C-alpha cells in the first residue's frame, strides 16, 4: 500500500501541474477519488484512483449569488444554515456544478422580517452586494399578502396614492387584488412593519405575507425551504 499523500501532491505527480494549479483544480470540483468529487487539497489518498475531469480549468470558482425561499418564522441566520446541496431546487438549476466553496462567506443582503416568508438573497459577489446595498432605496420589491377584514371605501386607490396611519404618512405603493383575499403590493425599500401599517390603514389585517420579487429578479416557482442559483442572465 502506498504511503498516504495529500490529494494535491498526488495530482501534481499525475499531471505535472503546479501546486497552485492542483489546488485550483481540486477546489473547483474537477478531481475525483474513486469516482467521487473531493474538494479538499489536503485530503489524504493512498491507492485510490485519482482522476482529473476532462475540460478542467485551473481557476478559482466564480462567486455565486443564492436565491432562497425562506419559510415564515425563521431568521435569516437559520435560512443561511438551511442552504445545503440537499435543499437545492434541481428543477430550476439542473446543470449547475455545486461546490462546497459556494457556501462559504455568503452574506445576506435582503432583510425580511421573521414572520414573513419568501425571497431572500445571499451572495459572495461584491457587485451584487454593492448593488443591493447602495441602490436598495431605488429597487422595487413585490409582495403577495393574504388579508382578512373589510376594505374601506376606495381603499385600493388610497394605497396607490398614499395613506396616513396613526398620524404617520405612509408611502404610496402599487396595490392590486390578486384574488379575493390576496393583495399584491410593490414598493421600494419597505421599512419593517410598513406592510402591516398599510393594511391596517385601509381596514385589513395580514394573515400571511410573502416576498416574490426584488428588482427584476423573481423567486419564480422556487419551493419553500429550497434555494437556487442566480443565473448569469438575471440582474437586479
Description:
The chain has 236 residues and is α+β, with helices and mostly antiparallel strands. It has three domains: 5-52, RNA-binding S4 domain (Structural Genomics Hypothetical 15.5 Kd Protein In mrcA-pckA Intergenic Region, Chain A, Roll), CATH 3.10.290; 65-137 and 216-229, Alpha-Beta Plaits (2-Layer Sandwich), CATH 3.30.70.580; 140-214, Alpha-L RNA-binding motif (Alpha-Beta Plaits, 2-Layer Sandwich). The chain contains six helices and 16 strands. The protein has helices at 7-15, 19-27, 76-81, 126-134, 155-161, 194-201, and strands spanning 5-6, 31-33, 36-37, 44-45, 50-52, 65-70, 107-108, 117-123, 140-149, 164-165, 168-169, 174-179, 182-188, 204-214, 217-218, 227-229. Strands 6, 7, 8, 9, 12, 13, 14, 15 and 16 form a nine-stranded mixed sheet that branches. The chain has a three-stranded antiparallel sheet with strand order 3-2-5. It is elongated and about 80 Å long. The N and C termini lie far apart (54 Å). The model has no long low-confidence stretch (mean pLDDT 92).
Amino acid at each position: 500500500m502506498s504511503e498516504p499523500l495529500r490529494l494535491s501532491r498526488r495530482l501534481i505527480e499525475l499531471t505535472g501541474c503546479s501546486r497552485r494549479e492542483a489546488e485550483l483544480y481540486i477546489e473547483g470540483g474537477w478531481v475525483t477519488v474513486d469516482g467521487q468529487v473531493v474538494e479538499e487539497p489536503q485530503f489524504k489518498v493512498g491507492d485510490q484512483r485519482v482522476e482529473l475531469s476532462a475540460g478542467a480549468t485551473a481557476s478559482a470558482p466564480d462567486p455565486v449569488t443564492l436565491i432562497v425561499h425562506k419559510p415564515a418564522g425563521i431568521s435569516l441566520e437559520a435560512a443561511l444554515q438551511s442552504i445545503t446541496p440537499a435543499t437545492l431546487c434541481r428543477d430550476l438549476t439542473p446543470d449547475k456544478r455545486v461546490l462546497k466553496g459556494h457556501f462559504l462567506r455568503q452574506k445576506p443582503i435582503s432583510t425580511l422580517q421573521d414572520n414573513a416568508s419568501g425571497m431572500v438573497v445571499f451572495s459572495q459577489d461584491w457587485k451584487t452586494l454593492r448593488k443591493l446595498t447602495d441602490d436598495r432605496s431605488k429597487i422595487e420589491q413585490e409582495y403577495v399578502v393574504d388579508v382578512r377584514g373589510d376594505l374601506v371605501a376606495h381603499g385600493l386607490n388610497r394605497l396607490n396614492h398614499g395613506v396616513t396611519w396613526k398620524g404617520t404618512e405612509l408611502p404610496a405603493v402599487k396595490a392590486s387584488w390578486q384574488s379575493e383575499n390576496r393583495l399584491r403590493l410593490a414598493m421600494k425599500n419597505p421599512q419593517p412593519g410598513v406592510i402591516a401599517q398599510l393594511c391596517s390603514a385601509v381596514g385589513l389585517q395580514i394573515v400571511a405575507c410573502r416576498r416574490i420579487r426584488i428588482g427584476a429578479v423573481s423567486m419564480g416557482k422556487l419551493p419553500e425551504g429550497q434555494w437556487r442559483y442566480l443565473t448569469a442572465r438575471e440582474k437586479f
